[in-house]
Amino acid sequence: MCGIVGAVAQRDVDLILLEGLRRLEYRGYDSAGMCIVSESGALNKVRRVGKVIELSKALADQPLRGHTGLAHTRWATHGGVTEDNAHPHVSHQRISIVHNGIIENFEALRQEIVAAGIELRSQTDSELIAHLIYQQVSSGHSLLDALAATAQRLHGAYALAVMDRDDPSTLVGTRSGSPLVVGIGLGEHFLASDAGALLPVTRQFVYLEEGDLVAIRTDGFEVYDRSMIPVTRELFESSLNADAVDKGGYRHYMLKEIHQQPDVVAETLEGRIIDNHLVADCFGPESEALFAKVEAIHIIACGTSYHAGLVARYWIEAIAGLPCHVEIASEYRYRSPAVPDNTLFVTISQSGETADTLSALREAGRRDYLATMTICNVPESSLIRESDLAFMTRAGVEIGVASTKAFTTQVTALMLFTMALARHHGMSAAQEADLVAELRALPGQIRSILQIETDIARVAEDFTGKEHALFLGRGTEFPIAMEGALKLKEISYIHAEAYAAGELKHGPLALVDDHLPVIVSASSSELLAKLVSNLQEVRARGGQLYIFADQDADLVASDQVHLITLPVNHSTLSPILQTIPLQLLAYYVAVNRGTDVDQPRNLAKSVTVE
Ligand code: F6R
Prior knowledge:
Structural class: alpha/beta
Helix content: 25-40%
CATH topology of the largest domain: Glutamine Phosphoribosylpyrophosphate, subunit 1, domain 1
Strand content: 15-25%
Bound molecules: fructose -6-phosphate
Radius of gyration: 25 Å
């Protein structure tokens, strides 16, 4: 989603801003721009539709020099993808702003600005904010007071950074619903929507809280809460690696991230299992007492993270014997769910900033939950900061928009969570030891599945000209089929649906003909015989079956049956293993179709608007 970078320094800031934008590219965007106050006190801006590289080419022809500036990558909401709609927006050649989020009272504000005789140059909600701030500063308010007064009038989500041509010594910002961090350098300060944007210039960050306002200068910064009371926010030293945004020799970030899975899964397990048991307090010191009280689980997430939750439901109910409800956040937040006594509310998120998941957490705070917990990949994220308990997946920075390593580490973490609950709900020491052994074997098993990458790349060639695909699975492989379909559709743009195999004859079988590839995740479990019957239904209608089966499944290839045997045996963790070939399949289909694998059209990495 949109990205913000701002800088006040004693040197030219154009290259800092440009590198920041480059580092925010993974969030997904469709235009980019930069505005800098020149030495002669003019606001100069350059904006381009398309990638940051287009902006960088334009800046080569038309350099922007100066010590104070703002830059932005825009993911269109109000108004199409045009240069006029790209940020920064400027009011009266004096105020320049960049905005992430969506303003819901846009129409009322637009009418007010038009009635004041101001000619709008874009169709965006963001330009209105620039004019509202201008109105305040031109009637004598300081830039920070103008921002505070304007923010109070905005309904919706925003992170804003604002610059005044008449006082380039200061940049101001505020946030509500969208993240904003302050980067602290030596004799220079920065604003960004994501700490990763600023890693080449600083490792020290202050994360603004909801409603906070900030003023940054070369020699310092001040933070205020929404009532303009000065506040102190904790300083964080980032452990993120500035090189994490390199492709490391791979053609795409997604491929690099698929290959990192053995290591990051091992990392997620590190220090959390010892000998043949789970480390008792690996969910935090309070978790032991809390988990003993838990009688039900509600898991809320979006997209891929939701699929991770769906896998966990099978485990939590079967292994811990606790009722587990899993729901997408955008639905949960607008209904009135019944909350059984002693229910633990759990969010799952790679970014920790997904707007719907965050709002669901805040809704949960108004309901009668025992406690809230998040399973998340970004240490300083809003979900981590606002949840009672936090468990970190350790996937490292995920750049590819299509989530891969974040998913497998989430599902790994969810097995640890299941075990942590089950310890208080009847799991025997022997069962715990078996699960620990399976977890220990997991990184090696993922590694061996990655060995058959070329076989999967060959299978992917069959899909290049397809427009539809059907994914099937049963039990814990059903959410994996959903995840496989999501991966394929988001990066290759092939329409893909997933069904529980037993549901086939209740409708989707009508789609099956000899053009439709049907992808099946088959793990040798007690459901295999049932799955095989479902596959016969597909075969009888001429459907082409692509079956990913583990070694124990004992299936045979034939005319219509393409069998890809995974070099692993069945285990409780099979859903994690079954994910890997589907990621590779989606990747190679997308490469063959020539799509933008890492930044698929219309999508954003961190979905910070509703
Ligand atoms: C798909 C994908 C998305 C995210 C979803 C939630 O590959 O990445 O579906 O899973 O937008 O994002 P997080 O996990 O950051 O809350």
